[in-house]
Every structure is written in structure tokens, then in C-alpha cells.
Amino acid sequence: xxKTTTRIYLALIHHPVINRDGQTITSSITxxxxxxxxxxxxxxxxxxxxLVTPLKDQQALAREIIDYWTKGRGGRGNPxxxxxxxxxxxxGTLFEALEKIKxxxxxxxxxxxxxxxxxxxxxxxxxxxxxIAQGRPLVILLGTASGLSPLVFQxxxxxxxxxxxxxxxxxxxxxxxxxxxxxxLLGRPCS
Length: 191
Hints:
The protein is α/β, with parallel strands linked by helices and 191 residues long.
């Protein structure tokens, strides 16, 4: 497992999330999310990346993809991809992911929910950087489908301000959002 100085984790939530009609659903795991977010996580020194789904068939699918790249032929042919996917873990619930982080870190992590139009915005990127600098473990919660359930926002310790471009169109993929968020929080000039 790669070493990192940050105590930041990512959790890609597949349940509870909402659909376009605002109903709570469970979304499907996608191969692209696993690969791209793992690579972003590895680039920015994230300690772990949790795929959160209660569905056993989705957990099995994720495990098959992860194993192919970490234990199988894929990892032997592409060691950089293997290194990134070693960060991936599967959890049935967000609570389970948080417990695994607590076991590893010795303290409960703070949670930071994200979304395109969160119900509250109590954490700017600058404030989040200050929180990171304090050294406490943090979990950035990313939503799939049409975003995190209101329940997740209610239970989160913080809600990060949304990403906004120069237009009124705000429908980034979760992969793109993860990359932008981590770059704003942890990025540095390349030398």
C-alpha cells in the first residue's frame, strides 16, 4: 500500500443516493468510477477509497474488477493501475466504511459531504484545507446517481461548497468532481 502523509479517505456512495425525482435509490457500480477515482486518489495521496453499496451482486462485481487489477493479469500488465486499485475497499454501508477507518486511524473520521446543490454549504475549500492541516482523519463523501441522499447530508459533519463553472450547467460526472475537489484541496504546482 502506498504511503501518504494525509489522513484523507474517499467514499463513493451508491446507497443512499437519489434519482432525478428525488427518490432514495441504490445506484450501480461502474467500472470507470472504480478506475478513474482510484487513479485520482493515488495521485493525491488518499489513504483509501471505499465503494459503498449494500447490494451483494454489486459488491461481487466490484471485487472482480479490483481483483483483476490487483491480483490478476491486469495488474501484472499495468503496475501503475494495480497500485491505484490497491486503495479500493468495499463496504456495505457508510457506517461500515467509517468503522474500518476508525480501526485503522484509532479515531473516528470527520465526514465531508459533497454535491452540486447541497442543502447547506458550511465548508469552503479554504476552510477544508485548514481542517486537513489539523491532521484528523477525514472522509470525503461522493454521491452517485443524482447525488447523496438528504440523510447523508444531515449526518455529515460538514458539507463542502459545490463546484461551479462559468455557466449555469452543473452536471459533472462524479469522476470529474472527485478530481477537481482533490486538486483544490491537495494540489500543488508541478516543479
